[in-house]
Design goal:
By secondary structure, the protein is of the alpha/beta class. The protein is 28% helix and 24% strand. The strands form 3 sheets. Strands 1, 10, 11, 14, 15, 16, 17, 18, 19 and 20 form a 10-stranded mixed β-sheet that branches. Helix 6 packs across helix 7. The longest helix has 18 residues. The radius of gyration is 24 Å and the shape is elongated. The structure holds pyridoxal-5'-phosphate. Pyridoxal-5'-phosphate binds next to strand 9.
Length: 407
């Protein structure tokens, strides 16, 4: 792994494992624990996250597309996988051949699903209030179960729904959704098709009330150490797993009246020390953090000044004594270990750099999160989910894992 640019993310697999263990400990006995690893594991790396959570107590994996499921299979992941999103009927044999379960999200009985080589597991999706995918009419649910029953190559594996507002403690709409799901389950039972597996809960439902646990929960965001909403009262400790760092490439003292960055949107009002950081919107540090974001360097906060560029941004370090090129900037997550400098890293043989970074992170990064994704997301009226998914493929991920690094 080349780290010449000096921009990298730490993905703390120990934190992910700890989050999963804490969530698993709250589940009603016998409840399966599916972890959503869609969108490259919310940016953390789908395969690494999958292996970590399975060894920490998760039983199932969830993805958004068949392609994402196939990527896990290609990496040797053996656990049950469910595709949440719509899969076209013609892809059903591929899903079956790879033992990937799919959601029946609309009435396929009118379509010609090709014969599957081995039984395809199908979960019927019920729209109980999200208005995104699934059957709304109970009669259509029964019809689908009946149709599945006519096909020996399609196996009715479960019924599920998705909660729209479970993170909003002032709303009881999640309970209404649960009620509608239960009605669908009752109707299926009465019609002679008892669902083998019933599931509804995302992280919010899982952490809010065991009433949502049913046969399986599907957690995403909490795995990665963030709450579904900043105001959501999580009953378990969640440790953020993703941390973004970059080494300063230039430090310049400029006079008052100097404009900074594209469009000259920031103008210094005093003699200002400007540091350049090799991170930009093409790395997933959004452009809307221009003149808004804050970073941590040498233990102090510094403001992003001027527009965030594609590959770089500038910060005001006038009030941070001693800042030099090569200093490590914490963009988000736990504050970088003091000894992380470009010069120190360059002393480590290239092949050993990832291990050195992960070991020193574990031993020396400040325990508290210095800049949380919730704080940055709030500045853009968005959520932590979007920021973690935005971390670009070009940013090397350094994995912190107690076991594989054998400290
Ligand atoms: C993404 C997703 C989840 C996980 O949601 P979180 O809020 O991240 O816990 C669960 N179920 C479905 C269908 C999803 O798409």
């Amino acid at each position: 792994m080349e780290l010449y640019r000096g921009t990298f993310a730490i993905v703390d697999l120990n934190a992910i494992a700890a989050n999963i263990r804490r969530i698993a400990a709250r589940l009603t006995a016998g409840t399966r624990l599916l972890v959503a690893v869609k969108a490259n594991g919310y940016g953390h790396g789908a395969v690494e996250v999958a292996k970590t959570v399975l060894s920490a107590g998760a039983t199932d994996l969830g993805v958004a597309s068949l392609e994402e499921g196939l990527q896990l299979r290609a990496a040797g992941v053996d656990a049950p996988i469910l595709v949440f999103g719509a899969v076209p009927p013609e892809a059903a044999p591929v899903a079956a051949a790879n033992r990937i379960a799919i959601a029946l999200t609309e009435d396929w009985s009118i379509r010609d699903v090709p014969a599957c080589p081995i039984p395809l597991h199908v979960h019927i999706k019920v729209d109980t209030g999200m208005t995104r995918l699934g059957f709304r009419d109970p009669d259509d649910i029964i019809k689908s179960a009946r149709w599945l029953d006519t096909r020996p190559d399609l196996q009715f594996a479960g019924v599920f729904t998705h909660l729209a507002c479970a993170d909003d403690m002032s709303s009881d709409s999640a309970y209404q959704q649960l009620q509608r799901l239960n009605e669908a389950v009752d109707a299926l039972r009465t019609a002679g098709f008892p669902p083998p597996l019933v599931h509804a809960a995302n992280s919010a439902g899982t952490l809010r009330d065991p009433a949502f646990h049913l046969d399986m929960v599907r957690v995403g965001i909490s795995t990665y150490g963030y709450k579904p909403d900043v105001a959501f009262p999580s009953p378990v400790k969640l440790e953020p797993a993703m941390h973004l760092y970059a080494f300063i490439t230039r430090v310049a003292k400029v006079p008052a009246g100097t404009r900074v960055g594209y469009g000259g949107t920031f103008e210094t009002t005093r003699t200002t020390v400007v540091a350049t950081v090799p991170v930009g919107y093409a790395d997933g540090y959004p452009r809307w953090l221009s003149n808004q974001g804050e970073v941590v360097v040498r233990g102090q906060r510094a403001k992003v000044i001027g527009r965030v560029c594609m590959d770089q941004l500038m910060i005001d370090v006038t009030d941070v004594p001693g800042v030099e090129p090569g200093d490590c900037v914490t963009l988000y997550g736990r504050e970088a270990p003091k000894r992380w400098t470009a010069a120190a890293l360059s002393q480590v043989p290239t092949a050993d750099q990832p291990d050195w970074l992960s070991r020193t992170f574990m031993q020396e990064a400040s325990p508290a999160v210095a800049i949380s994704l919730d704080e940055l997301a709030d500045l853009g009226h968005t959520i932590s989910y979007e920021l973690m998914c935005a971390l670009a493929a070009r940013v090397p991920r350094i994995y912190v894992d107690l076991v594989s690094n054998s400290f």
